[in-house]
Specification:
Chain lengths: 266, 202
């Protein structure tokens, strides 16, 4: 690990000003991706700004059918939350399946989104539920948030405060796990709302994306059968030693069908 | 990683209450660290206060020191193992504020103000074993024992969150802990028995 300076601000204001003063500083949330990246010397920030002491960044609140989850809320707390289980059970199940127990005890929602790993679970929920990412500067719609491989709409100086998830009519999430990394080889979050169906895919492309052909079919007939013949083009999908692009294309359909089946039963 | 030969180690920092371990680093990593320390700007040490196994610890450390390095190399609590060093194996699992975390994937500074418990800190004060340790012993839940501290620490936290464990819960709950010897079967038996014993105790 290269040497770096470390700050642990106790307020958002302090964190924002530290970030303003150091353009190359990195924010540290749970550190479950950043600490390994530092150890592999993939990243060389002069300063880490640890957000752990800023109390207002953690917690779960429900208001007017919107569930707001603070950026520093740990995966284990989202998974265990009665409020989440009551309003969006699929989101709780998704959180309960991230990484392993130790990772879930430390990793955070905001960290996962800012990192935007192509195989991460949360991006599928944020995009699938049409959530809003609220930062210290603005509110970003999920459809505008994920731009590419480890690339988001976040600008320098921007800190994620929370994510607002609208409560759907029903939703489901299924993923095919890469057993060593526990990331999704392919995962699909399916969500049925009064304004239509959304299907978000993770693990298969450079970042989470929507499967709009599936959305149209599911809007007419919300059953696994409705999408069984859909096969997304493999051209833009990831290919690596764990799975070729055409295999991922196949997995997307299977995961989306499982997610629909799961949504239909709750 | 932290080399005790660099210029900003606890040995040279004022006010430390901890022994430093000089000249014990081995292998290429130490060489890398020395080179990096020579090139890198000299970073200020940060102050860290926390409780480890109920004992207050107060020290100056380099920000890049990992929690597992603090435990093993500074506090000489070598019961916490490093199996993979890449966050995969769970051998380094300790409790931070009661929750199982991987100490190789945390900066020591992330434990600022925290209550950290290691395998050395779980047995009852009067001697003997923690019921989960006793269950591993009883059910032959270990062979070489390298993964065991991490297994036991994660299992204790698992019982805290799910008091009525099924075998499937144990298998999925220990997902983050790898064992190269046992084939897991006796570990699962041990955790189920340990869970029962912990319940009987509370
Ligand atoms: S040594 Fe920490 S997970 Fe393997
Ligand atoms: S007992 Fe040897 S690694 Fe588990």
């Amino acid at each position: 690990m290269y040497a770096f300076d470390y700050a642990r601000p106790e307020s958002l204001k302090e964190a924002a000003s530290a970030l303003r003063r150091n353009a190359d500083a990195r924010l540290l949330a749970g550190g479950q991706s950043l600490v390994p990246a530092l150890r592999l010397r993939l990243s060389r920030p002069p300063l880490l700004i640890d957000l752990a002491a800023i109390g207002e960044l953690s917690g779960i609140r429900v208001e007017n059918n919107v569930i707001s989850i603070g950026a520093m809320t740990r995966h284990a707390d989202v998974a265990a939350s009665r409020e989440v289980q009551r309003t969006i059970p699929a989101l709780g199940r998704l959180a309960a399946g991230i990484g392993d127990r130790q990772v879930r005890n430390q990793g955070t929602l905001g960290g996962s989104l800012a990192n935007a790993d192509p195989g991460a679970d949360y991006p599928a929920a944020v995009l699938g539920l049409g959530a809003t990412v609220v930062t210290n500067k603005r509110a970003i719609a999920a459809d505008k948030f994920f731009l590419g491989l480890f690339e988001t709409a976040l600008k320098p100086g921007e800190i994620i405060l929370r994510v607002d998830f609208p409560q759907p009519l029903r939703a489901g999430y299924a993923k095919f796990r890469q057993p060593a990394s526990r990331f999704a080889l392919a995962g699909a979050f399916v969500c049925d709302t009064t304004s239509g169906v959304r299907v978000a895919v993770t693990g298969a492309g450079p970042c989470a994306f929507r499967a709009k052909r599936m959305e149209k079919l599911l809007a007419k007939d919300f059953t696994p059968k409705a999408i069984e013949k859909i096969l997304l083009p493999a051209d833009d999908l990831n290919s690596d030693l764990h799975a070729a692009a055409d295999y991922r294309a196949h997995l997307i359909t299977v995961m989306a069908q499982r997610a629909v089946a799961q949504a239909a039963t709750v | 990683m932290a080399s005790s030969r660099s210029t900003h180690t606890p040995a040279s920092a004022g006010g430390t209450t901890l022994p430093s371990r000089s000249g014990r680093s081995t292998g290429g990593e130490a060489g890398d660290a020395a080179r990096a320390a020579a090139q890198a700007p000299v970073m200020a040490c940060s102050h860290l206060s926390l409780n480890v196994n109920g004992m207050p610890v107060s020290t100056e450390i380099e920000p890049r020191l990992l929690l597992v390095q603090l435990l093993r190399e500074r506090l000489h609590l070598t019961g916490t193992h490093v199996g993979c060093d890449t966050g995969q194996c769970g051998a380094c699992t300790v409790h931070m504020n009661g929750r199982a975390v991987k100490s190789c994937t945390l900066l020591a500074l992330q434990a600022q103000g925290a209550e950290v418990t290691t395998i050395e800190g779980i047995a009852p004060a009067g001697g003997g074993l923690h019921p989960m340790q006793a269950a591993f012993h009883e059910h032959h839940g270990l062979q070489c024992g390298f993964c065991t501290p991490g297994m036991v620490m994660n299992a204790i936290d698992l019982v805290r969150t799910q008091p009525n464990l099924t075998e499937a819960d144990v298998r999925s709950g220990l997902d983050g802990n790898l064992c190269r010897c046992t084939g897991y079967h006796n570990i699962v038996k041990a955790v189920l028995a340990g869970a029962g014993a912990m319940k009987g105790q509370s």
